[in-house]
Design goal:
By secondary structure, this protein is an alpha+beta fold. It has one domain. Strands 1-2-8-7-6-5 form a 6-stranded mixed beta sheet. Strands 3-4 form a two-stranded antiparallel ribbon. Strand 3 and strand 4 form a beta hairpin.
């Protein structure tokens, strides 16, 4: 639990899955699917949609985007255990808004697109959606690193 957000526990890669990447990713995807794919989630009275493009292992590409991170040395995205462990937080954070421990705002990006940011600062976790008429498309969800906090705070100060 974090503050009074009542977030579920993170997935425990080492203790619950004994470092087995395959079973860990299956568990993370099962939660992702149950929370965001099997039933439409609504946020701010809009349906949350996911890009239906399939990635590796018959899992949605957006799932892979959420659980991986750019690796400059490998010149590709690689599994990031910390990101994947927090998949169970996505839906509960959305359902908790509005909440004093969560910053939610809309921001116009440089390309003119409007994005929604849902940032639980106490957990250093952010979820990002792109606004498309009456719907929201999940763009990403990740652990906020120190350098990214400055960027998010700047966007928050310039929010719509």
């Amino acid at each position: 639990m974090h503050d009074d957000l009542f977030l579920p526990d993170e997935l425990d890669y080492r203790n619950d899955y004994h470092g087995n990447e395959e079973t860990f990713l299956k568990a993370a995807y099962d939660i992702f699917h149950d929370d965001l794919v099997a039933k439409t989630v609504r946020f701010q009275e809009k349906s949350v949609l996911l890009d239906s493009k399939i990635g590796e292992g018959d899992k949605l590409s957006i799932f892979w985007h959420i659980v991986t991170k750019d690796n400059d040395l490998a010149a590709k995205r690689c599994l990031n255990i910390s990101r994947a462990q927090k998949v169970p937080w996505i839906k509960p954070l959305l359902l908790a808004v509005p909440h004093p421990a969560i910053k939610h705002w809309r921001y116009v990006e440089g390309n003119g697109q409007i994005r929604h940011y849902v940032w639980a600062e106490s957990t250093n976790y952010v979820i990002i959606f792109e606004e498309k008429k009456t719907k929201l498309f999940l763009v990403s969800a990740f652990c906020v690193e120190p350098w990214k906090k400055r960027d998010l705070n700047k966007k928050y100060m310039k929010r719509l």
